[in-house]
Amino acid sequence: MEDQAQAGKRAAAKRAVDERIRDNQVVGIGSGTTIVSAVERLVERVRDEKLSVVCIPTSFQARQLILENKLPLGTLEQYPQLDVAIDGADEVDAHLNLIKGGGGCLTQEKIIASCAKEFYVIADDRKDTAKLGTYWKKGVPIEVVPMAYRPVQLKIQQQLGGKTELRMAHRKAGPIVTDNGNFIIDWMFDGTPDWVEADRKLHCIPGVLETGLFLNMAKAAYFGTSDGNVSVRIPEISPS
Ligand SMILES: O=C[C@H](O)[C@H](O)[C@H](O)COP(=O)(O)O
């Protein structure tokens, strides 16, 4: 029997691909497990509707997925402006702020999302929370230049509080290494930070390449439930 979360991911992915991808578009393909279902659906539409698309990957995994499924592959050099990007997330709050990077991919994902006219998130409904950190307990992933990881950890703790951990690899000695040759620090924040301010402070620390906070980027989020229903949310207006 299909895992419940998997059924939710699949339903969200199908609806987003059906509603948001159109003929002759340049499409950003995210990373992780949920995007696999989106690519499967895109393959069906390309086959059945003769849809013509070019896919721009956000990671090594996404590139492999595009190639294995024989979808047209492009680069940002060829297509610096994308029509649409679709990606998963580790958690989504009421304003559609996201934590991403649980699978070690975040910098290329953020670049691709920032180059797309429309960015959509797909997730199973467990990830739909009022406040970041409710469901996702592994902190905010931050990609850092390897030689700076220790001072960056100290500065995050001094300036933003909480705890940090250098993410270690499984089946490889030492830390994980990203697609860009960097390390990942996971920041276990205290309470509910002002995310815009926290992200600004993190970016000001030399050695920080990018954060897994995707703020004010998503145009809508698709949440799938285990019984195949999908709810679509647009961002709530933040209180001023
Ligand atoms: O690093 C990984 C990416 O940011 C993923 O999009 C995110 O972790 C969600 O992954 P999944 O779809 O596997 O839950």
TrEMBL record:
BP GO annotations: pentose-phosphate shunt
Pathway the protein acts in: Carbohydrate degradation; pentose phosphate pathway; D-ribose 5-phosphate from D-ribulose 5-phosphate (non-oxidative stage): step 1/1
Pfam families according to UniProt: Rib_5-P_isom_A (PF06026)
Top EC class, one word: isomerase
Lineage top rank: taxon: Eukaryota
Reaction(s) the record says it catalyses: aldehydo-D-ribose 5-phosphate = D-ribulose 5-phosphate
Protein name: Ribose-5-phosphate isomerase
